[in-house]
Inverse folding.
């Protein structure tokens, strides 16, 4: 009887091992932690980094024509587009950009803020206004984005670890090969640089999706780099001034230390 059990035990053991290996494989397949961001370098990084004005203006175009359909830029005012250290559009250009947006108007002479259809009264934006949201409220935003609430982009670079690389990886990561055994959730899209690999945002960039005024070829990679540059400026508009001040302070400290050392040597030389 013991000899009769051995084949059965062998089959059971083999089946158990097979199930164990299958379970391990499945566990490995469903490990959907986001991939490390791509190691893309940007001109504005590092102690001597600076924003490229042409890239900032191209990046604003990508935001306006692509990202702005869903994402707000609520901490940026239209006047900032004209500020030193930013895209540095001319004042006339910044005014023209602002005029293309509608913002809630002040009450009319009757004290009304809505028209006879209940629609909010609006007016063209001016330089003092901030970028308006694409939808009137969060409920409307979710209704137009399959229940998702797209984040504000004005601070997105600062809000994410390795912000420039993270956003760049998300924007260029939609065409990565999907691993076997992974299933995309309904109304989601595969992107291995997003936690869980299921992202609500559809691929926003396409080759030649915008037409750059300066003639730059609008590849997906180029658009991603440009809009990351623009969003980095939006997150830290005074970066260049900060770095210049830091460099000035370092130079002052080096000179001051040299003067102190020279004075120290002279005092002790006289003492001996």
């Amino acid at each position: 009887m013991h000899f009769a059990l051995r084949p059965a035990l062998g089959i059971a053991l083999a089946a158990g091992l097979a199930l164990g290996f299958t379970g391990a494989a499945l566990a490995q397949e469903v490990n959907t932690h986001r991939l490390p961001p791509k190691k893309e370098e940007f001109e504005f990084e590092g102690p001597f980094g600076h924003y490229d004005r042409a890239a900032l203006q191209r990046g604003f175009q990508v935001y306006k024509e692509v990202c702005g359909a869903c994402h707000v830029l609520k901490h940026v005012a239209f006047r900032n587009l004209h500020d030193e250290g930013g895209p540095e559009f001319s004042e006339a250009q910044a005014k023209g950009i602002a005029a293309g947006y509608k913002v809630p108007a002040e009450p009319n002479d009757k004290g009304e803020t809505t028209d006879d259809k209940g629609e909010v009264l609006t007016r063209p934006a001016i330089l003092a206004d901030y970028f308006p949201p694409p939808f009137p409220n969060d409920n409307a935003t979710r209704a137009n984005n399959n229940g998702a609430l797209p984040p504000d982009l004005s601070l997105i670079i600062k809000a994410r670890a390795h912000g420039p690389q993270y956003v760049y990886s998300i924007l260029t990561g939609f065409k990565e090969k999907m691993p076997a055994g992974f299933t995309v959730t309904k109304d989601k899209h595969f992107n291995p640089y997003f936690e869980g690999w299921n992202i609500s945002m559809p691929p926003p960039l396409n080759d030649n999706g915008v037409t750059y005024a300066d003639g730059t070829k609008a590849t997906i990679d180029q658009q991603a780099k440009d809009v990351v540059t623009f969003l980095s400026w939006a997150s830290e508009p005074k970066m260049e001034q900060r770095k210049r001040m830091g460099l000035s302070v370092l130079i002052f400290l080096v000179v001051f230390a040299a003067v102190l050392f020279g004075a120290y040597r002279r005092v002790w030389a006289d003492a001996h």
Residues 48 and 244 are 8 Å apart (CA to CA). The helical segments are 2-29, 53-65, 91-99, 138-143, 156-159, 163-172, 220-235, 239-271. DSSP finds eight helices and four strands in the chain.
